[in-house]
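Why do we care about 3D structure at all? Because function follows from shape, and shape follows, mostly, from sequence. That is the central idea of this module. The next example makes it concrete: a single protein chain, its amino acid sequence, and then its structure expressed as tokens.
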Amino acid sequence: MKTKSFSEMQCSIARALEQVGSWWSLLIIRDVMMGARRFKHFEQSLGIAKNTLASRLTQLVDGGVLEKVPAADGSAFDEYALTERGRDLAPVMIALAQWGDKWAPHKKGPSTEIIDAETAEKLPRIWPRRDDGEIIPLREVRMKRARGAPRLNWLEEKEKN
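And the structure:
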């Protein structure tokens, strides 16, 4: 069965999911953000089949989220590091972790803490903010169709009413 591709959709969310939408991909990115760098690290952490892991790593490298780099210890093994594109996923990963801690908690508590590396203080919840840092209530946040974006019949009907 062929899966649908979102790569040509104008929707930014759909195209982002095309790059990192697999749960394995997001868990690999999480592990890299926590310091994992080698195939064996991901395999041990995730309990993922080697062929699935190899496929996801290849997709993340091909998509520019990860890059293969020489091993820090000089060994012959490749290591994986986040690219700028991958590092830009940090707010997404932090928000997803914070959402999971609140709405899908484990009975033993969270497995990670999002902290300021310098102060070791827990980071505040990721949320839209104004330029001065003030949190914007969700009732004041809107997503709207961008100029030139495909028309959405259901949205146009809603806007008429």
